[in-house]
Write a sequence for this structure.
C-alpha cells in the first residue's frame, strides 16, 4: 500500500507492548495465551507501520526485570520468541523489514543467540521498515554498556560518544512512544532515547491494539507541538522545531 501523504508523521514509533497477562486473565486463559495473542498483535502492527510509511518501529518484548516472573512464564516467553523468529522471518523479508534484536544477549541460550543473528543477517539488506525488538533490554543496561564501551575506547565521555555507543545507534530517537495496558510509566524502556519523544498512553491491552488504535496515537502525535526547549512564538516564526543534535548542528525535524 502506498504511504499516505501526511506531514508531521512520526518517523520512529516505540511501543511498550503491555497488557498481555490481563488480556488472558479476563478470558480465564493462562498468561502465555495472552503473550501468543501479543505476537499476533505485533504482526498486525508491523504491517500497519509498513502501510503507513513509518521508518522505524521499536518494541519492548522482554525487559531485564521480566526474568523475575515465574519460571514457567519466562520459559514460555523464550519458546514463543524462538518459534516466532523462525516462523515470521519469511514474511518480514517479503515486507522489506530489516530486523534488529536489541538487548543483552549474554543470558540467552546459544540457540536463541544464533537465531537472532541469522534473522538479522537475512533481513539486513531490506530497505523498508526497521524493526527493533528489545529483548532482555533495559534502558539502564544500555546506558551502562555504552559508558563502558566509551571508557574502554579511551574517548572522553560526551553525549555524542555515548549516543553512538548505545544499542539503538543505528536509528534516530523515537518521535512517538506508546504504552498500552493503562500503566503510566516507562518501566526502564529507552531512558536515553525518549528524551524528547511524545508520550501516548492507552488503556487498550496490547493484544487489542489494532490499526485504529495506531491511527489514534498518530493523530494525537500530529496534534502536538514539539518545542525542544524553544518557545511557541519561535516555532510560529521559524515554522520548524529544532531537535537537539548531539553532533553540535541543530537538525530540522522531519
Ligand atoms: C507485556 O504484558 C509482555 C511482557 C512483559 C513480556 P504483561 O505480561 O506485562 O501483561 P500484564 O501487564 O500482566 O497484563
Ligand atoms: C514492561 O512491562 C516490559 C514489557 C512490555 C516487555 P511490564 O509489565 O514488565 O512493566 P511493569 O512491571 O508493569 O512496570
Ligand atoms: Mg505488564
Amino acid at each position: 500500500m502506498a504511504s499516505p501523504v501526511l506531514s508531521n508523521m512520526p518517523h520512529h514509533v516505540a511501543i511498550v507492548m503491555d497488557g498481555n497477562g490481563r488480556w488472558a486473565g479476563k478470558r480465564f486463559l493462562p498468561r502465555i495465551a495472552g503473550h501468543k495473542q501479543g505476537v499476533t498483535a505485533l504482526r498486525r502492527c508491523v504491517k500497519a507501520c509498513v502501510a503507513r510509511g513509518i521508518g522505524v518501529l521499536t518494541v519492548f518484548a522482554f525487559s531485564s526485570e521480566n526474568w523475575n516472573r515465574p519460571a514457567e512464564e519466562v520459559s514460555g516467553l523464550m519458546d514463543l520468541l524462538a518459534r516466532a523468529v523462525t516462523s515470521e522471518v519469511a514474511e518480514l523479508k517479503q515486507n522489506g523489514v530489516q530486523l534488529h534484536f536489541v538487548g543483552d544477549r549474554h543470558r540467552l541460550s546459544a540457540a536463541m543467540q544464533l537465531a537472532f543473528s541469522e534473522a538479522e543477517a537475512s533481513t539486513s539488506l531490506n530497505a523498508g521498515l526497521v524493526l527493533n525488538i528489545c529483548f532482555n533490554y533495559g534502558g539502564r543496561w544500555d546506558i551502562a554498556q555504552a559508558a563502558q564501551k566509551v571508557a574502554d575506547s579511551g574517548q572522553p565521555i560526551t553525549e555524542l560518544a555515548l549516543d553512538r555507543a548505545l544499542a539503538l545507534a543505528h536509528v534516530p530517537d523515537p518521535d512517538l512512544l506508546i504504552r498500552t495496558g493503562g500503566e503510566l510509566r516507562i518501566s526502564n524502556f529507552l531512558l536515553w532515547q525518549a528524551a524528547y519523544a511524545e508520550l501516548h498512553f492507552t488503556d487498550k491491552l496490547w493484544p487489542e491494539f489494532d490499526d485504529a488504535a495506531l491511527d489514534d496515537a498518530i493523530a494525537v502525535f500530529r496534534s502536538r507541538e514539539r518545542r525542544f526547549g524553544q518557545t511557541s512564538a519561535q516555532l510560529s516564526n521559524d515554522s520548524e522545531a529544532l531537535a537537539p543534535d548531539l553532533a553540535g548542528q541543530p537538525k530540522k525535524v522531519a
User: Anything to note?
Assistant: Confidence is low (pLDDT under 50) at residues 1-5, 249-254. The first helix runs from residue 20 to 26. The chain has one domain: 12-228. Residues 15 and 59 are 5 Å apart (CA to CA).
